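Task: sequence in, structure out. Protein: lytic cellulose monooxygenase (C4-dehydrogenating).
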Amino acid sequence: MSSTKFTLAAVGAFAATALAHGNVVSFSTDGKKQQGYLMDYYYQTKNGGEAPKVAAWSTENLDNGFVDPTMYKTSDINCHKKAKPGALTSSVKAGGEVSFEWPNWPHNIGPVLTYVADCGDDCSKVDPSALKWVKIDEAGYKDGKWGADKLVADNGIWTTKVPANLKAGNYVFRNEIIALHAGGQLNGAQNYPQCVNIAVTGSGTDLPEGTLGTDLYDAKDPGILFNPYQGTIKSYTIPGPKLFGAASAALPRLPPTQPSEDDSCEAEGDDEEDDGEDDGEDDGEDDACEPESSAAPQAPSSAPAAPVPTTMITRTSSAAAAAPTGDAGSSQGVALYGRCGGLGYDGPTTCAQGTCKKQNDYYSQCI
Ligand SMILES: [Cu+2]
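Result:
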């Protein structure tokens, strides 16, 4: 995993990891809560099951990690790694609100942005690399606070107002946090994009030309290669295209800041070896998207019962974290991609196929 390599390279033998926090586990439109994509669904599918149909996009964000600037010119910058469109489409009124839930969000340094991309007749069939993004919401650095400070203060809920004049139609909404605690070094920024299909209703007609995902950012943009530990921050240029409805006068672009040599953030580089399971245990209440109320997504019954952390727990780990070793030759045992260990688990620990690998303290898996 490139993020693992990067973090390990950056911080040496040790890295602090935070519990899972890289996925939007639920979202709300006009106050109505709906199911997000959970990493459990990925494992369910791998186990031959069927994942619930949701409007949120699936990803293969198996380490609850991020997209880094070396991936800005790949399709993964659109909606995270190997993202595929959600099967459903939710809806919101123009002028209404969409909220995204990022449980246990630990990074308070960096901007938060929301984009929409017109997906034509059917968002469930769209190719992410063809989407053209229009930024409808951005929070950079203001009055001593980052956008992400607000997200943390609001318990991981980010709320975006849909422009009242936005053209009615089907959109992919893209909420993104760019964590900059390591942004002082080249390719140290961490982008966490998450996508959901939402139709905007109303009578709006405005929709500016959008920007392809691969054109959104550059590794050396002043708001990407940015040292947040430079003392008093006098100005911060939010990356990406201009905001919907903003005047077209371009803001002066500052030269990129010097990469910092002694980045105190390095001690908290993270995200490798985060767990590959959800931490938001949504109860499935009011989960259904409107188009398929008879097929309401259910909480996966085989979901590993991970304790929901109430605070961010930091621990140190090395790449050689102990993992129970499965007996790959056994004809008995856990199926490929099944759970084979972790705190609170008391099932079989040998794998019928593959090897039992520790993903985190709560989850080991036959892979
Ligand atoms: Cu992180």
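The first strand starts at residue 15 and ends at 17.
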